[in-house]
Amino acid sequence: MEKTSLFFLLLVLSSVAYYLGRQRSLSVAGGRARELHSLPSYHGFYVSLWAVVPALSLLFAWLAFEDPIVTRLVTDALPGEVQSASPDHLSLVLNDIRNVAAGQASGEPDPVIRQAADHYRHLQVLSNRLLTLLAVLLAVAGAWFARGRISVRHRARNKVENSVMIFLVVCSTAAIFTTIGIVLSVLFESLVFFQKVPVTEFLFGLSWSPQMAIRAEQVGSSGAFGAVPLFTGTLLISLIAMLVAVPIGLLSAIYLAEYASPRLRAIGKPLLEILAGIPTVVYGFFAALTVAPFIRNVGTTLGLDVSSESALAAGLVMGIMIIPFVSSLSDDFINAVPQSLRDGAYALGATQSETIRQVIIPAALPGIVGGILLGVSRAIGETMIVVMAAGLSANLTFNPLQAVTTVTTQIVTLLVGDQEFDSPKTLAAFALGLVLFLVTLVLNMIALYIVRKYREQYE
Amino acid sequence: MSDVIEPNKLAPRRTLAAVNASLPRRHAAEKRFRLYGLAAIIVGLVALAILFLDILVKGYSAFWQTNIALDVFIDPEIVDPVGKRDPEQLALSDYDALLRASLARIFPDVKERVKKRELNGLISGGAPFDLRDRVLADPSLIGQTVRIWVTASADVDMYTKGYLRSDAPESEQRLKDYQFAWLEALDADRRLEKRFNTRLFSAGDSREPELAGIWGAVAGSFYTLIVTLSLSLPIGVAAAIYLEEFAPRNRWTDLIEVNINNLAAVPSIVFGLLGLAVFINFFHLPRSSPLVGGLVLTLMTLPVIIIAGRSALKSVPPSIREGALGVGASPMQTVLHHVLPLALPGMLTGAIIGMARALGESAPLLMIGMVAFIVEIPRSTLDAATVLPVQIYLWADSPERAFVERTSAAILVLLAFLILMNGLAVYLRKRYERRW
User: Fold this and answer.
1) pTM across the whole model
2) What is the pLDDT of residue B2?
3) How many domains, chain B?
4) Domains, chain A, with CATH or none
5) Interface pTM, i.e. ipTM
6) Which residues from B are below 8 Å from A387, CB to CB?
7) Is residue B199 part of a domain?
8) H/E/C letters for each residue in chain B?
9) Mean pLDDT value of segment B99-113
10) Would you say residue B111 lies in a domain?
């Protein structure tokens, strides 16, 4: 039986088990539900959990170990000369076998492979049958065992609630596991990379050209992995973005919080926040096809030499995207400044703008800085806009009219397409990812710390 | 003594004079400041308006596709030489020849080989298949001359939409003068017509702009979001319940909280690296599949759902919990039977917003190979697929004007979905929001 249908069969079995457990508890109590320690439905859930949890665990364990074991068995059954071939060749052969077994073979396969494929398919069928049998047996045994334990004093509710609690706790650790997963996955590949390319060269090298030759003896086969041009490119584009986003975001937050009529605020705030909801690929398209040609045309009429993938275009559009990140957090914090501070300033004769500049902004400054830091981290990590609108050439320049490349652009170009996990070219992407993760992590930590500390101050 | 009193009496007046003198300057500053604020908002809104208008103007025409009317003689000699009306035989026939013949009848004086090829290039490479489907559906057409509308090629489409002009300089021209003459002749003959572009919504990707559609990408997005929703909603809700209702305040829960807030701000591309290293390289899940895409997006949307879920739970007043506990419910019953139902609309709103973000996300999906050129419509979560934003990215790379138009149309469809989802979230919030 297929695993998905087995899964649904187990779900059906669990509902049958629920019904059986409920009935059993009622019959044990002689139909008087109030005699029972727990409600009949808890007895039902109890039996149903016993039916489904062990069987599902078996199913998942099977999913994890089935393929390696079957592959091992098939490999052992292969003729000796194939087995002793290089690991690369062996994995190619295994791939062929899988394809033939799945019926996706192109042309007439080699008899050895055909035989192995038949063996493979046979083992798969066998394994599926065994799994179905075992899982159903386990479900029935579990349900039978649980049903036998039902009595008037059986504390089914506590047991069911404990299982639910375990589920809740496990789910709450998902975030921890995600972080661990991110750290481990980028760290491992980066360490392999740093064995091939020294850390110092990566962090301080001035030239970036990750093209690896196909053959080892070819000219220029080493590639250059100095990431400084990427860092400066990222900084340049982020700087342009923040030069757009900070004044516009901050001023509009101030206006919306302090000056705007309730109606303007009710319309203006959500409209500005739409900017944060637009997919970044849309901004990328806009930057590449509308803004970049526009800037180039303006530059040409002014007699400037503007690259068609200028940092300016990507930065401007990214700035527009970040406006709401800056404005909505600033807005929250300006609103959180107590009215008494405003009243005090007005009583001293300050005008509204003087109050804002000399009282409210300083009071809300931590929040505003937090918002700006989150905006910077967003700008550094933004991918689609720069992939579509910024260039690929790693120029070490601070001229916004030239093309620069960024960390995220390079990660995408290095990893899209064929990947070899032993070439520095692919691994370099993970090293860049590590840098990106660490930098944004530090920025986020600082921002969140400031925001949190400040929130407590006025609460 | 009076001398000493005088300055004291004068001082406030002098201050007042100083203040009065500075007032015009200060009021001007006030006005300026106000204007800056207003200008900032206007700049933001104008940018938004330009963005939308630009895409609308570029994209609206893609919803129509030029068709050419041809009087096709469905020659039994070519279509069904055996005469058995056998569907298998009919499916293999050379319908292209029929179309070529009918074009040749309209332009009898085109004799040169190169020009003939260009003439045949006016109709799309997909047109013979349309004709085949028609004949297969109704074999009685064989032997008759029927007037059918076939899909025109992208260049013709661009011509009728006015993007290709015959008066532009020769060097920038995609079409030659005599090709324009053909098109003008066809137009004068009322053989060119723009019809609603159903293929855009029903076809998968294609190298030919006029045959390319977004349905494959929409299906991919659908499967990806199904995986994301079915994992992130239960896990997110469970995590929110634990953290808000049961977790003791200690270092461990603090760590979890910091982690969640941090993950919400980690660049999306890093999640793509995680997906590549863990799901594809370690667990050997199928590359480019909606399953892996959905898993990656689950990890990305979880923080959003958890944060929204916690604030929804927080807004349920303690009196509800106290009431339930007071009549003897266990803590778990209190939460699951009384608090959760009240918090659920808020949680769903958060989930929908998270899903909308996942729908628009493309960077992490590039990492796990959902950028392949895929013509087939995916049928399960294990098939190779792409998603709508990635399709936009792929099309945006094509230089043809016809693809620019289709990219914008795909963006419009994506934005329509997003507006729909966010609208639903707003509606849910308005409909079920309770003030305690």
Assistant:
1) 0.88
2) 47
3) 3
4) 3-164 (no CATH), 224-458 (1.10.3720.10)
5) 0.89
6) 363, 366, 393
7) yes
8) CHHHHHHHHHHHHHHHHHHHHHHHHHHHHHHHHHHHHHHHHHHHHHHHHHHHHHHHHHHHHHHEEEEEEEEEECCHHHHCCCCCCCHHHHHHCCHHHHHHHHHHHHCCCCCCHHHHHHHHCCECCCHHHHHHHHHHHCHHHCCCEEEEEEEECHHHHHHHCCCCCCCCCHHHCCCCHHHHHHHHHHHHCCCEEEEECCHHHHCCCCCCHHHCCCHHHHHHHHHHHHHHHHHHHHHHHHHHHHHHHHCCCCHHHHHHHHHHHHHCCCCHHHHHHHHHHHHHHHCCCCCCCHHHHHHHHHHHHHHHHHHHHHHHHHCCCHHHHHHHHHCCCCHHHHHHHHHHHHHHHHHHHHHHHHHHHHHHCCHHHHHCCCCCCCCCCCCCCCCCCCCHHHHHHHHHCCCCHHHHHHHHHHHHHHHHHHHHHHHHHHHHHHHHCCCC
9) 83
10) yes
